[in-house]
Amino acid sequence: YLLPGVDTLPEMQRTLLDMEDGCNYAHSIGDLNTCLCDWCKQQPRQPWLDEQTARVEVSYVVFNAQYGLYTYVSINFLFNRGGHVYRFTDMISCFQDPLRTSMGNSIPTAIAIAIWAVLQVKLLIDEIRDAIRTVRSSKHGIWRGLLRDYLHFWNLVDWLSMIVAGMAVFFWLNVRTQVDAVNSLMPATVRATMYPTGQAVGERRAAYQPTAEAWFTAAEQMSLANSACTVTIILYPLVIMLRLFKSFQAQPRLAIVTETIKTAIPELAHFFIVALCMFGCLF
Question: Which residues fall in a coiled-coil region (predicted)?
Fold first, then answer.
């Protein structure tokens, strides 16, 4: 860790030089205690950047007090075998308290969430009733009746929409839990930054680093939880769009669209497999 809150600029430069040297200078003079990095504790000693390095990540957290916004910034340097260095910057932001808005914005949001929750519960009840009615009228028993008579494509789409909705709620609550953890560690981190204890460099780092490390780890977990929540919320409209096609069955001309999609499912599956592989290589 580079700790600008307690380290001076020459001390941070010395730490980077020791990391680049692999603590060889400290070993040559026979005093590893003068080394400011942790690489001297590794056996064998080696520079932190060598021929086998594939990626270097520099991460830090920014807090915007005006908007109450945490931003986790990750700068990645990717090294290929040809010697080229690619730079990729990723920024993930999360509000300190997203519910702290004006009354004019809170009321419509609360009404929309309530309507959405009622519709999800209604959909769940309707699907359970439909499954029970199908099983009762089936002549193949419970499990075979569900597999043969109930689990059709559009029923699976309905259950998938409810599952994704539940995942979105779960991940959102997880984000709020992680944000609360970051908020609880924030005052101690600010006090340790404003009023560092100890005179020597080692004493200051020993007192400050555990607090800063705990807060940074919590912020990192918050950013990962926010990414998972964002991906789930992005997938949810796609599932809802599939449910929209279900209503096309009521009109013969519109049903042509759904029948075409059902016929093209193998080709679409192959296309999305290739597309996901291509986009996955970007990350």
Answer: none
Collapsing DSSP to helix, strand or coil, 59 comes out as strand
Residues 130 and 69 in one domain: no
pTM above 0.90, yes or no: no
What is the maximum span of the chain, computed from C-alpha positions, in angstroms?
A: 86
Can you give the pLDDT at residue 165? Answer: 92
C-alpha Rg value of the chain to the nearest Å: 28
For tokens 């296309």, the residue is: 271
Residue 195 tokens read as 């009023």
Q: In the sheet that 55-64 helps form, which strands lie side by side, from edge to edge?
A: 55-64, 69-79, 85-95
Q: Is 1 part of a structural domain of the chain?
A: no
Beta-carbon contacts of 156 under 8 Å, excluding residues fewer than 6 positions away, are: none
In a domain, 3, yes or no: no
Structure confidence at residue 33 (pLDDT): 65
Statement to judge: residues 256 and 241 lie in one domain? no
* Burial (Cβ within 10 Å: 0-12, 13-18, ≥19) of residue 252: exposed
Domain range for residue 257? 251-283
Q: Tell me how far apart the alpha carbons of residues 216 and 189 are, in angstroms, rounded to a whole number.
A: 10
Per-residue pLDDT tens digits for 163-202: 999 999 999 999 989 999 988 888 888 887 777 776 666 6
174 with 188, same domain: the answer is yes
Q: Residue 218: which residues within 8 A CB-CB, separation 6 or more?
A: 178, 181, 182, 185
Residues 225, 231, 233, 239: what is their CA dihedral angle, to the nearest 10 degrees?
-140
State whether 62 and 180 are in the same domain: no
Question: How far from chain centre, in Å, is Cα 124?
Answer: 28
